[in-house]
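Give me the 3D structure for diguanylate cyclase.
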Amino acid sequence: MNQFSEMIWHRLTGLMPGELTQGELGWLFSPHTHLSLLARRRAILIVNRVRLFAFLFAVLTPIWSVVDFVVFPFPLWGQLALMRFAACAAFASLLFYYRSNGDLFNAYRAIALLFAIPTLFYVASHTLLTSYQLTGMSAAIGAGYAFLPFVLLAGLAVFPLAIVESFIIASPILICQTVSGYLRWTVMDWPTFAGAFWLLVLITGVASLAGICQLAFMIALVRQAIRDPLTNAFSRSSGTEIMDLHFTIAQRNKEPFAVAFLDLDHFKHINDQFGHEAGDRTLIAMTESVTEHMRHGDVLVRWGGEEFLLIMPRTMLDQAATAIDRLRKAGFGERPEGGPVTASIGIAEWSADRAADWKQLVEIADQRMYAAKQGGRDRVVSGEPCPVSAVGA
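Predicted structure for diguanylate cyclase (393 residues):
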C-alpha cells in the first residue's frame, strides 16, 4: 500500500512539480486538515468571488427580460420578469449585505446562497415554460433556459475548492436535473436527456479540476508567504495573524491560551566566531528539534533573529511549563564549538496574566524571557513574581 501511494505521489509531482509537498496532497481532497491561516484566507477569497458573481448576475438577470419581452407572449413574459427581478433582488442583497469574517462556514453559506438563487429560478422558470406550447424563436429562447445548470456548474471553476467541497456543492444541481427527468418520464427524449446529463457531469469534473488546481496554487503561495524561508517555522507576519485568531477564540470561549518566548543563549558568539552559515545551521537544527518534539496543535514562529515564539492554544500556565520542560530535555541542538544549544524562555497565559490582547501577552512573555537571561540564562521564567527554574543550572 505504501509503495502504491508513493507511486501515485511521484506521478502527481511529475504533473505539478514544486507545487505541493507530500503532506499537503490530502488537502486537495478535504479541507478539514487545512491550516487555520489557509482556511481563513480561502474563506475571504471565496466570499469575494461570490460577491463578484452576485454582481454579474444582479446586472445581467434583469437585462435578459428585454429578450423575453420580444419573443414570449405577454403573460409568460410578465411572470418571467417577476422571477427575474426577484432573483436580481436576491443577488443584490448577497452583494451588499454579505461580508467575509474569515470563517470557512461563513464562506460555505455564501456559496450555497449564490447557487441556490439561480437553482430556484431554474426550477420555477422550467416549470412555467413547460406549461406553454412554444414554437419558432420562442421555443429556441425557451430551450436556452435549460442551460442554466451548465452555467452554474461551470462557475465552480472560479473557486479554490477541495474535491469534497466541489462534490457537495454540485450535488443539489445534479439531483435537481435527475428529478426533473424523472418527473417527465413518459414524455422524455431519453437519449437527449442522457447526453445532457453526461455533459453536466463532465463539466462538473472539469470545473472541479480547475478548482483543485487553484487550491494547489493557493496552498503553495500561502506556504511561501507564511513560512520563514530559512527555518521553515512560521514567519512573524503569519505568527501575528495566528496569535490574533487564537487569542480571539480563547477570549470568546473562556479557554486558556499560553505563549512561550524563546531566545537562544550566546547566539551572537556563534555568528561572530564561526560565521553566519554556522548560525543558520544552529537555527535550523533548533527549529527541527522543537518541531519534532512540540505538541500537536502548537505553533512555532520565528519572531526575529534568534528569537522564537511558541503558540500554545488551550494551554494553562502549568501545562505550558511542562511542555517547555519536555522540549528542553529533548534539546535544541549542538553548538559549533561543542555543548548543547540553550535558550532563555519566558511563559505567559492570557487569563492568568490578565492580558488585554495578544500584543500584551507577547510583551509579558518577552519580559519574562529577559528575566531568565538576567537570572543566568538556560532557564524558564513564568508567573508573578518571576520564579526562576533551570535544568542543570
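Confidence is low (pLDDT under 50) at residues 385-393. Let me know if you want a second pass.
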